[in-house]
Amino acid sequence: MTRNEILIVSVLSCVLAVPFLDKPFHIDDTFVLHITENIIENPGDPLGGTIDWLGHEERVWKVTTNPPLVSYYLAPFALLAGFSEVVLHCAILPFYWLFGISAFSLAKRFNRDPWFPFLFLVTSTAVLVSGNVMRDIPAAGLATAGIAGLVYGSDRNDWRLSCVGASLMGLSILAKYPLAMLILPIGLFLILRRRTRQVLWLLIPAGMVLLWCLFTAQRYGMAHPLYLLLEKSSSSNIMWQDKFFSAVLIHGSALYLVPALLWVVLRRRRISWIGWCLLPALGLVFWSMGFYDRPFDFEFSLWLVLGGVLLCMAFAGAGNFRSPDSVLLLSWLMIPLAFSVFFIPFQAVRHQLPVLVPLLVLVFRYFEKCGIEGLRKGLAALLVFQLGVALLAHSADYEYAATYRDFATHASARTDELGSQIWYVGHWGWKYYADRAGFRQLHRDGPYPGDGDIVLWPAKVHIGDVFSKPSEVRDRLQLLETMAYEGNVPFRTMSMDARAGFYAVIRQRIPYRFNWSSPLEVFRVYQVGPEDSVR
Asked: Do 361 and 448 reside in the same domain of the chain?
């Protein structure tokens, strides 16, 4: 890479996140920050203590599904800045840079023009809206950089690049366990290139994970990855077909590239090209209509078709399926995709971040076969449109996250007026701000609020099984008031009534919906009545 390329890629990788640096902590940020607090208190016991994340208190190491590398990284920033949203989001920016610059370097390796794959990556809703302090952007950045180091190390027979790449891949696994799947594609790539000795570099990430397993086995009684595999089997009743449809439509909603294919078809008058891309994608829609017992959903079907076409284009762009490059790119795309479908409890946009780079590289390899020179203006227009949608979606997600910070501040200011102990139910970002405001969380197993206490209940946040046990508490809740937050941006990223779920794409939800009517959140304020108020 030239100095100018490094400078431009570095700026573009990070600049789009700058307007949202003060975004309130959101969804799983709270869990990451809880482990960060553990590390600050006792660095040798990151997964110690308990947390209520599902409606009842449970040991942290049994609830979390990922290792604590990102929390270790954030701990000094949090300690020095008092868990400032701006500071912790700034701390994540280097991973945006790492993701962008490694994606650009790989696109330069596999494509004739690396700029469009890079630009479509950093302007996608998947990357931009995922700008939280969760593990996903750091893990994707580390993994992509690891693959880049190993690929270029193989090309140049440079042991230093290979060592750095293998170490970065190990760090990505210590950020998110599913990134271990990427050892298989890079291993196949090296074997097919007859770089047998270079395969040994993969012992570095394996050794890093082994050390973590030994540490957790000694500290918590069982290696954490082994516990997740053997003891914490998913209780989700979401079928693999649902997760497959969701994964495909995530790709279609994140990358606005399919209209360029139509331009290629019209320009070259190759109508038959539509068949092998569009017909399988339409087949997905008909399959989904038979699977879901629900009315036809236009937006769901649109993103599913576009995602299906992208996958077909990716296979067409692979070319010789026996070449090491094609094997690497296709297995990098399909192995993590299959893992998310069959082994992860539910789909989310963030789960698909690791496969966006090979998907984009393969799609643009296809465009290069077709003659990308005539597509540049059209691709530039699509890029601008995609960026506009991503900025609107991120703005809507920011508004949604801000409701919990704002209401916690509002309710805290009314403590004297309410004059009673304030309790709350719910998790995600709301839990973080409710805890900071000094409210007490209501757990399934108690303790329980007394007569006259106040209970705050956001309508759209996950509350788990807090009311699953026989208890008179719920029946004694008497509604005092409600407070609704209406959004200014006509998008919804998390809304059951709008059927949008950027952080949980399940059961015909889509990552974002164009919606003006559904409120962002509705907070209900209850007072616990006397026991004789139960009917």
From this structure: no
Q: What's the distance, CA 477 to chain centroid? A: 35
CA–CA separation, 165 vs 105, rounded Å?
A: 13
- d(C-alpha 34, C-alpha 41), whole Å: 11
Q: Are 223 and 213 in contact (CB under 8 A)?
A: yes
Q: Residue 423 belongs to what H/E stretch?
A: strand 422-424
φ and ψ at residue 128, rounded to 5 degrees: -70, -45
CA distance 391 to 533: 49
> Are both 184 and 278 inside the same structural domain?
no
Q: For the chain, what is the domain count?
A: 3
Domain residues for the domain of 154 are 1-233
Indicate whether 381 belongs to any domain: no
Torsion sign (Cα): 169, 161, 88, 483? negative
Cα atoms in the Cβ-side hemisphere of radius 13 Å centred on 212 = 24
For residue 248, give every residue at least 6 positions away whose Cβ sits within 8 Å of its Cβ, in sequence order, or none. Answer: 284, 304, 307, 308, 311
Helix axes 85-110, 136-156, angle to 10 degrees: 30
The predicted-structure confidence for 72-87, as pLDDT tens digits, reads as follows 999 999 999 999 999 9
Which parts of the chain register pLDDT below 70? 232-236, 264-276, 372-373, 470, 532-535
Q: Are residues 214 and 297 in the same domain?
A: no
Tokens encoding 11:
């700026």
Cβ burial, residue 459 (10 Å; 0-12/13-18/19+): middle
What does the block give as tokens for 258? Answer: 């399919």
